[in-house]
Amino acid sequence: MIVERKIVLALKKLDKKELKEFLIFVHSPYFNVNKGITLLYDTIFPLLESKKFKESHNDTWLWSVLNPEEKELDARRLNLLFYNLGLLFDRFIAQKEFSEQTFFQKKLMMEILSKRRLPLERRIFIRTTLENLQKNENYSATSAVYQYFIKKIASKKKRDNEVILWLNIYYILEKLNAYVTLLSWKKMYKLDVELNYLTYIYSLIDQNIHKEYPSILLYIKIAKILENENETEEYYELRKLMKKHVVSFETNLQREIYTMALSYCINKVNQFKSEFHRELFDLFKESVEKNVIMENEEISVSVFRNIVFAAIRVSEFSWAEYFIENYKSYVNPKFRDNAVYFSLARLEINRENYPKVLDYLQLINYDDVWYQLGARTMQMAAYYKLGEYDALESLLNAYKMFINREKSLTKERKTAYLNLIRFTKKLLYIIPSEKTKIQNLRKEIEENPSIVNKSWLLERVDELSKSRY
Questions:
Q1: Position 70 in a domain
Q2: Which of 95, 265, 414, 432 could form a disulfide with 280 if both were Cys (CB 3.0 to 4.6 A apart)?
Q3: Do 273 and 287 touch, CB atoms closer than 8 A?
Q4: Total domains, the chain
């Protein structure tokens, strides 16, 4: 079948827009004068666009369409046509990529103007290119290397300090980027690696020039908070710099900086530093507003849920609802429904709208263990607050059985969930008048280091102690 040919497999990876672009490319006499290749692509184009290849679409069928006057298949000539179509496809991909690389186009243009001895055109082109670079400066390493190459071509001096300056900025940014990446990996994967070259990087930075380059300033702050997470002052300095400069950075650089700042805040929240709840939400909100939370027009499931949770934790319920409604379409359709319904259930449980919580939980597909755990925990809370104690007891028994049987959970994680179930059962059998039992239960929960939803249990105990009935 023709669908198994390498060039056809490559073409199948193009979207409809790209397939049509290649059709125009094939028909362009500047790029292709071989009518056989044009006819070949015209024939397979509808099949590629509709994705409806059949077993009958084989070499013999194709040859009869291309050469109806010839009765027998000429495999050598057909293979040559496909080979040449492949060469044309390679050229199309290269041309498409080149058209998006405006810097390299300008660099090549300046070299051509020099080679063809067109000094006036070259001077005008250099001036407009430099003006455009300055106007659209985005403080990335890529921008710095652009500045270096353009100024190097434009310079008439054998040693131009400005040219060297831009080369140094590029080098420092690349080194700092590598350093903060390695620091992140070291923490994430517990790598036993010594990273001592920040002092060397600092030695390269000219205090009067390089250190004033905004992205260098931010990378230095990120490096310092990664080296010592207790340096909260450095973090707040980083936030000031972000508010001042990050809007002028390119999207990828903005995303990197926000990712690092978010990682720092998440670690602080995990260390029970409650003052970082608002910081985490603000970072997520800014990254959404600046459109840097998405990558390739998609928001990952975990990021989507974390953003909603961060908003709920600081009681930004309206914003959380706005985010779910307006950004759910950016979640992969395969995982979207679960992420949306779970997030809505989490939102409604914090609004104390328990019937809605149960409605949303019924819509979740429980193939994922993570959703099973989270949803059942919310279901427990909803049943308790609704006074559905029989349903709650039945759920607790089923939940306990599920935890004990689930092989993917570690022993420590199982203990934490089983403690939640155990203490929730104790809540069911204490009456408000038994003040001593309530006090003892609170002490037991407080002293236990391994409980899921510990704060919820303590709130329920406090409700019992304040009750008059």
A1: yes
A2: 265
A3: no
A4: 1
296 CB-near residues (< 8 Å, 6+ apart): none
Q: Which residue has the tokens 């009518």?
A: 35
Is position 147 within any domain?
Answer: no
- Please report the beta strands in 321-385, taking only residues with DSSP state E, as ranges in sequence order: none
Closest CA to 280 of 308, 240, 252: 308
Q: Which conformational region is residue 118 in: left (phi greater than 0), alpha (psi within -120 to 50 degrees), or beta? A: beta
Tell whether 86 is covered by a domain: yes
Q: What mean pLDDT comes out for the span 86-100?
A: 92
Give the range of the structural domain holding residue 26, as residue numbers without chain letter.
2-100
How far apart, in whole angstroms, are the C-alpha atoms of residue 216 and residue 245? 11
Radius of gyration of the chain (CA): 31
Q: Which helix (DSSP H) or strand (DSSP E) does residue 149 occupy?
A: helix 141-154
Residues of the chain with pLDDT > 90: what percent?
A: 54
With contact defined as beta carbons under 8 Å apart, do 283 and 265 qualify?
yes
- In 3D space, the residue among 37, 58, 36 whose CA is nearest the CA of residue 47 turns out to be 58
Within 8 A by CB and 6+ apart from 334, the residues are: none
Q: Tell me what pLDDT residue 86 has.
A: 95
User: Residue written as tokens 């903060």?
Assistant: 180
| Stretch among 12-21, 179-188, 350-359 having the lowest mean pLDDT | 179-188
pLDDT at position 188 is 66
Classified as helix, coil or strand, 299 is: coil
Please state, in angstroms and rounded to a whole number, the distance separating the CA atoms of residues 95 and 154: 26
Q: Are 445 and 454 in contact (CB under 8 A)?
A: yes
Contact between 316 and 350 (Cβ < 8 Å): no
- Cα angle 397, 403, 404 (rounded to 5 degrees) comes to 90
Above 90 in pLDDT, residue 430? Answer: no
Q: Which of 99-103, 302-306, 401-405 bottoms out in mean pLDDT, i.e. has the lowest? A: 99-103
Residue 464: inside a domain: no
Q: How many residues does the chain have?
A: 469
User: Residue 208: which pLDDT band, with cuts at 50, 70 and 90?
Assistant: low
Q: Is the pLDDT of residue 469 over 60?
A: no
Please identify which residue in the block is written with the tokens 């910081």. 279
